[in-house]
């Protein structure tokens, strides 16, 4: 995507095109990290405890006295996931809504101000180009995750929010308050 944008901008043959193309995996990783961090922060704010933080290919597992980082990529992992433990806490539609919406909100809260910075910055071409790529990718990820659809077992945040708003019984929500992902 970034390479196509750079080529369309008339930078054929320029080394900057290759920087954008090869930086795409790092930009995607950063956007997924921002998204999952949004879920984790929102979960912590609503009383949950983060037990696992996965951004493919890395996973951090939190235990009461330590944490462990390991490489992990299983089939079906499409980017990232946060597992929260709400054990012993009463079910709250509001806390689930906040936790699920935290991911897209984080993408938008990072992407939009970064885009304004890029527009008004006097930074160098490379720094400005990478910041613009991160901002557009983060905005796209945030808005894309708000679209309500299901892909296999995976329900987007938008679908989870939609179902949460439509159901009366919280046990029917795909965002389980006991172990939310």
TrEMBL record:
Protein's UniProt name: Site-2 protease family protein
Essential cofactor(s): Zn(2+)
Membrane topology, record value: Multi-pass membrane protein
First-listed, main subcellular location of the protein, grouped into a coarse class: membrane
GO biological process: proteolysis
Location of the Peptidase M50 domain: 27-134
Places the protein is found: Membrane
Family: Belongs to the peptidase M50B family.
Keywords: Hydrolase, Membrane, Protease, Transmembrane, Transmembrane helix
Species this chain originates from: Sphingomonas oryzagri
Membrane is among the record's keywords: yes
Transmembrane segments: 16-35, 96-119, 125-144
Iron-sulfur as UniProt keyword: no
Coiled-coil spans in chain: none
